[in-house]
Amino acid sequence: MPGAHRRILVVEDDPETAGQLVEQLTTSGYDVDLAANGRDALNQGAARDYAVITIDRMLPDIDGIAVMRQMRDDGIAVPFLIISALGEVDDRVRGLRAGGDDYLVKPFSFVELLARLEALGRRSETVAKETILRVGDLAVDLISRTASRGNRRIPLLPKEFQLLEYLVRNEGRVVSRAMLLQHVWDLHFDPSTNIIDVYVGRVRRKVDDQQAYPLIHTIRGIGYCLRAPG
Amino acid sequence: MLLAKTLRSSTFRLALIAIGTFGLIVSVIFAYVYWSTVSYVRSRSDRAIMTEQANLRDAYARSGRDAVIALIGRRIADKSFADHVYLLVDPTSAVLAGNLSGWPANAADRGWSEFRAPARPPASGDPLVRIMTGTLPNGDRLLVGRDIGDIDDFTAQIRAAGIAVVVLIAVLAASASIGVTRRTVGRIESINATSRAIMFSGLDQRIPLRGSHDEWDRVAENLNQMLDRIETLMGEVKQASDNIAHDVRTPLTRMRGRLEKAYHRPRNGENDAALIGDTIADLDTVLAMFASITRISEIETRARKDAFRTVNLAEIAGEVVELYDAAAERDTTRLELTGDAEVPLTGDRDLLFDAIANLVDNAIKHGRAGGRVIVTCRNGGGGAVMSVADDGSGIPASQHDHVFKRFYRLEQSRYTPGNGLGLSLVAAVASLHGATIELRDNSPGLLVTLCFHNGPQVAANA
Lengths: 230, 462
Hints:
heterodimer, A: Rossmann fold, Arc Repressor Mutant, subunit A, 2 domains, 5-stranded parallel sheet, B: alpha+beta, Beta-Lactamase, Heat Shock Protein 90, 5-stranded antiparallel sheet, 10 helices
């Protein structure tokens, strides 16, 4: 991630949560500004160019969704990550419909937040229009929808291919289970079983078994990361 | 107290409006009857007077003044003309014949008029006489009249009868409406009393029935059934919160014990890291449980019908089967999808996915290792039908009704992973989609069937 654009605006009214977010994001290498209410958020959002804005749904003065709408109306195109204690699916849909780019339900793990911020920040960069994605000796052909390592073809079911493609597109970044469900299965809820782990386990066997080095790594307590060694 | 309530009640006000309207209509009808009767009687009397005038003029035309005088004499002597008055005067107003002493002061020379004639024989009150006057060709003036006091009496009687009837109707209607209102107010009051009792004490009160099977009894019956249902639901809520308390306290107690032990122990990086990791995992379990509970509540409150679209149930089931294929493979279970390729249904994709996923998850978990799980989607007679069958240990028939309750877990599965919310979620999703759930013995194993009764069109309008 280029260091030039790692400034994040955190809109959060609870001082303790805000403090934790600022501290941990700063530790992770972000420059963080804090707004404690909707009015400040509107002012700061207009004054500076941010990579991502995280916004709480329930703010003391203006509703988070209204703040987001206002900024969108003002032509601010920054990605929004909505953070809310209102975890109901309807609410999530309403938030995304109002211009949010991603939605995270409180309480969340900080690793999950980081993973989503990375994904959102990347979206604002230009996405290369390549038809074959490569990581190490893995090649993923987006046209024929096939994958291979070296010159050995990997037999994949359609969903397995989608999952691998998503991991490859996020090469080097942690991808959470919820993100996989959202992007591969278009599911906006957590089935609260280990089904994703079992599924990724099978893809990993197909991709990594009897190879020189593994590509898919488990990140304990959060999800997966695809990266080549070195 | 009851009277004050009666007067304030809307029934009574409605009754008053009805009485007022009815009274007005009756009054108008009586006024019309009165008016037409009076004018009929009067016109008959006037015709009789006109006939007499004509008779006397005929007599004059035939034989002159003497014949007129003679006819007047005969008429006065005739008992059947007792209520008639006659008078013939010459141009100097000298009386020639008749039973009046002189030409009445206010009588017109020609046409109709009325005056009070001195009574014959003198009595209290002079009778009112209606007269018709005219002039004969020789200049004599002729007066013929009739006592209309009787007609006045008659019309007065009709008037009195009319007023009496209107008053009687008003009194009867008022007392009837007070009676009906009191009865209504009484029944409502008993419903109100029960409602207050429920608010102050508890849900065990019921509205007393009168056994009359009228609409009030039906209202009371329905309210009582509603109360029964609420009481059952409250019982279930209590049962569920007891279960939540149990299932949440267990990990919370573990966490508390762990933290307390660590607090009193010297810091040790490795131990602390393991302890924190375990605690986060336990917290995640608790949070996931809350997420499931709120999710089920959300589905049950039916706030999500706006997300309904036409979906292909077989396609959703296919995606679930694909997602769980890896899990089935691990347990060497064969997971298969059969049935129709196109099973249209109006519903919420996410919820249907979640429900089918829960059923498949259960089937794999509680099925036989090395066995089969078959998911079937087909177009049944009344709508889409989806079933999941396994060949595991099944659920005893006596437990079939209980497994849909929140946090209900069979003894045999107490220690397998899960929170006892899966089937309650399936039940909530089914009920939101108007589907029925059936559990059957697959001998061996369990067969769960969801029948969506409404076709896509019907559901779209729902």
